[in-house]
Amino acid sequence: MVVLFDLDGTLVDTWDLYIEAYRRALAPTLGRRPSFDELVALKPVSELRLLGRALGEAELAEGHRRFIEHYAELHGSHFGGVYPGVRAMLDALRRDGHRLGIVTGKSQAAWEVTRQVSNLGPFDVVVTDEAVAAPKPDPAGLELALERLEAGRGEAIYVGDGIGDAGAARAAGMGFAAALWPKAPDERKRFLAEVAALGARVALARPAELVTVLQRSGL
Question: Are 163 and 45 in contact (CB under 8 A)?
């Protein structure tokens, strides 16, 4: 089985880290640090695209350089860490012979920072934002991961915490597992209803449940 994962908000908690790195990266151009609401309005599902919308193409490269600098520096104070149970889940999936991958809206440079500090172990494929023309829910990232692995959509599942993740899995014709462990209790019911409408096959309260489901019946 091929098990593909979203990264931010699914395997690692980078919400506060991203918000502050965005604010600091945008400040020199805007003349101030943007508010939380302003950042949410820019749709922070794709790092490079958010910066491009805020800065324009002419300033994107310099803005992203600043962003990566702040993203690396702020890990000590703003990185929420790897979610409990994630490393054990990944280790168990590898022992069971599953091929693992990441499909993320993160840039390659930001992934390298996260990879070094998170100790998630090896992945068979990693698709970052630069590799695709459109972000999730466009299925291009998932399709590229399967192409690189020479795997069919019927033997793959995508695990994520967002509506865009579920939409991408549906568009790619593969199963989706909803990661509930990052969600507050009052968020879960609405999220489950939304992803069920997009064909989610299973909801996972804890990372270990994915291992159990695959061992018992597959997806």
Answer: no
Dist CA 36 CA 49 (whole Å): 17
For residue 46, name the pLDDT band (cuts at 50, 70, 90).
confident
For the structural domain made of 2-13+81-216, what CATH number should be given? 3.40.50.1000
Tokens read off for 91: 């280790």
Cα–Cα distance measured from residue 94 to residue 131, given in angstroms and rounded to the nearest whole number: 25
> Residue 117: what are its φ and ψ, rounded to 5°?
-95, -15
Average pLDDT over residues 120-140: 96
Catalytic residue annotation: 6
- Quick check: 167 and 198 in contact, CB under 8 A? yes
Domain residues of the chain, as ranges? Answer: 2-13+81-216, 15-78
SS3 56: coil
For the segment 85-108, the average pLDDT, to the nearest whole number, is 97
Q: What is the pTM of this model?
A: 0.95
Write out the two tokens for 14: 């980078």
Q: What percent of the chain has pLDDT over 70?
A: 99
Q: What is the mean pLDDT of the chain?
A: 94
- Are 31 and 15 contacting, i.e. CB atoms less than 8 angstroms apart? no
